[in-house]
Amino acid sequence: MLEGYVVEPLPKHGTPADTVKQALQQIEVPDPYGHFARAFRGPPELQALGKWAFTEFMSDNGFFSLYAPYMQQIEQQVIAMGVSLLHPETDSTGNFTSGGTESNFSALHAAKEWARIHRPKARKPNVVAPFTIHPSFQKGARYLDLEIITTDLDADGRGVPANIARAINDDTIMVAASAPSWHYANIDPIAAIAKIAADAGVWMHVDACVGGYLSPFLEKLGEPIPPWDFRVPGVMSISADLHKYGYCPKPASTIYWRHAEYQQYHYVQVDDAFLGPYKMAGFSGSRSAGSIFAAWAVLRHLGEDGYLRLTRRVLDLKARCVRAIDALEGLKAWQVDVMPLHFHSEKAPTPAIYQGLLDKGWMMLGLVQPPAITVPLDPGLSDEALEHFLRDLREVHGRVIRERDPKTGDIRYG
Ligand SMILES: Cc1ncc(COP(=O)(O)O)c(C=O)c1O
């Protein structure tokens, strides 16, 4: 049991709603501290719209999204808006999921089903990917009895096509790469990797969970973003999270299929003798339809010009953050193609700076190898909150440099 928390069984008698609300209100994490952990919320008025749409449809069961016309229409509109950003084929399509983990799971599952027909000789199926592939692949592979073979990176933290080519064997069913990875926030050389996958006759998936709804707008603003979407021949599926830089309320992500034909490998229909055919949009059965309607509301409200406006804000926050970090002795912000931003210290132990920020109340994420601190930078982050964070960082950094034996923390991603 967590120290200081009282965990009790179901009370014999109910508690008045006001008392319940008061109890929950006490848990609220004060801004701006909570912001880092709850990043990707978007500006307050956007959050309010998403929350409103979510609560309006919260009690509707997304179980029926393939069947109930009002829900099917909204889900398909979300998919149509999202896929339009990816230079789709005329029959490209997708599915709404609960998050990046489920989107990547869906890609693994579809590839496994596809491989039964197209890679029949694969006896112990594996997936080849650069070392920075997100751990949701290892997790999905555990459920699906697949092996993930990871390959070494180049000096910038990008996958190396030749290493991928070398690792592919008769049991390989998929190659997966990131656009970008969370770890280095750099985009793998998708075009070269997809060509290797196509030549080997295996499924090619791009994990764009973190950047799928940011990179298209960075590119429109003139940032140098290498090709990673359906413009690249051979890319068969793409995962992209609405609840990251799409600024939609969680849980919300998308898995896109280059051709409608690939989506057929995603669906699982069980013909139950008693219930009849049982087929859902994805892995979940019953689910709240709230996040589907909220995503529709956010996408419709923002439109392309809204996303461009928020992308400019991300770039501005990033530039200010990089300047402030690099101005501190020994601190180094990493060069990243997309987001999130990471930094480390060359003068002091980075885990000690991480711990100092935690002690000040900031909920930080980080990387273990090499040790680094992650700053996702949400366009909803106010100027005051950013200044507050940078002030605390300066103070913690100065103290850690002065102290002989500073308290160090265990850096964590999750
Ligand atoms: C590249 C990448 N893929 C997948 C995921 C998993 O997403 P989720 O936490 O929404 O399941 C993340 C999460 O940060 C990610 O950065």
Q: Which sheet architecture does the biggest sheet show?
A: 7 strands, mixed
Structural class of the secondary elements? Answer: alpha/beta
Number of strands: 13
What CATH architecture of the largest domain do you see?
3-Layer(aba) Sandwich
What is the CATH top level name of the largest domain? Alpha Beta
What is the CATH homology-level superfamily of the largest domain?
Type I PLP-dependent aspartate aminotransferase-like (Major domain)
What is the C-alpha radius of gyration, as a whole number of Å?
Answer: 22 Å
User: Domains counted in the coordinates: how many?
Assistant: 2
Mean pLDDT: 94
Portion in beta strands: 5-15%
> Which distinct ligands sit in these coordinates?
pyridoxal-5'-phosphate
Q: Considering DSSP H and I runs of 4 or more, what fraction of the residues is helical?
A: 25-40%
User: Which word captures the global form?
Assistant: globular
User: Could you list the spans in which at least 5 consecutive residues all have pLDDT below 50?
Assistant: none
Description:
This protein is of the alpha/beta class. The protein contains twelve helices and 13 strands. The chain has helices at 17-27, 44-57, 69-83, 100-118, 135-144, 161-167, 190-200, 215-220, 260-263, 290-326, 350-359, 383-402; strands at residues 93-97, 126-130, 147-151, 172-178, 203-207, 237-240, 253-257, 269-272, 276-279, 331-333, 341-345, 365-367, 372-375. The chain has a seven-stranded mixed sheet with strand order 1-7-6-5-4-2-3, with helices on both faces. A four-stranded antiparallel sheet has the order 10-11-13-12, covered by helices on one side. Strand 2, helix 5 (135-144) and strand 3 (147-151) form a beta-alpha-beta unit. The structure holds pyridoxal-5'-phosphate. Pyridoxal-5'-phosphate (PLP) is lined by residues 99-101, 104, 134, 136, 178, 181-182, 207, 209-210, 241, 253. The site of pyridoxal-5'-phosphate (PLP) has 14 residues, from helix 4.
